[in-house]
Amino acid sequence: MKNLDYEYSFNIIGFQDIKDFENKHSIQLPNEYKQFLMFKNGGRTEQRRFTTNDATKKGKITSSVSMFFPLSKENEVNIEEKFEGYNLTRIVPSNLFPIALDPVQGLICLSIEGEDEGSVYHCDMDYFDEDNELRKEYIRLISKSFTEFLDGLSIPAE
Questions:
Q1: Strands 62-64, 107-111: parallel, antiparallel or unpaired by DSSP?
Q2: Which of 11, 108, 109, 130 shows the smallest number of beta carbons within 10 Å?
Q3: Distances (CA, A) of 120 to 17, 42, 98, 129
Q4: What is the residue-level pLDDT of the chain in tens, covering all 158 positions?
């Protein structure tokens, strides 16, 4: 996993904090994501630019990670708040776990179950219909693993 430079991060958490969250919501987070949370617990990285890599969709989207969500609740925008707001209300598919936000409020999500477990996706929330789950055409693959996603992040050109 690439060493990222952080503009800011949040209070360090431990393995038990992650286990408590997983047990509370009956989910299992990928190990590489757990390591990331225990290292910095979210924040804003200098390397944040990414491009989608989805062969099933026309065109590519280039964007940036505005913030990786912290597990701790010191910030009102956190994993618990996003999980409750997007997963428990069925806005995004249940296998997609929100891990970050882009500048236009698009979600970066990690697949936590199924054939694509561990893959990272960009969810374009501009096309979200409040009466329905986000449609698949607005969900694009970024990478096939969280480590690949982090390794692919770059510093935006000035």
A1: unpaired
A2: 130
A3: 23, 16, 10, 22
A4: 678 999 999 999 999 999 999 999 999 999 999 999 999 999 999 999 999 988 888 888 899 999 999 999 888 999 999 999 888 888 888 899 999 999 998 999 999 999 999 999 999 887 666 656 777 878 899 999 999 999 999 998 86
The three-state secondary structure class of 23 is helix
Rounded CA gap, 91 and 97, in Å? 11
What is the Cα–Cα distance from 135 to 88, expressed in whole angstroms? 17
Place of tokens 């505005």: 66
**Partners of 44 in beta bridges:** 8
Q: Which residue has the tokens 């987070």?
A: 29
What's the domain count of the chain? 1
1 located within any domain? no
Determine whether 75 is exposed, middle or buried from the number of CB atoms within 10 Å of its CB (0-12, 13-18, 19+): middle
Domain containing 44 equals 6-152
Main-chain phi, psi angles of 20, to 5 degrees: -60, -45
CB-CB contact of 23 with 33 (8 Å): no
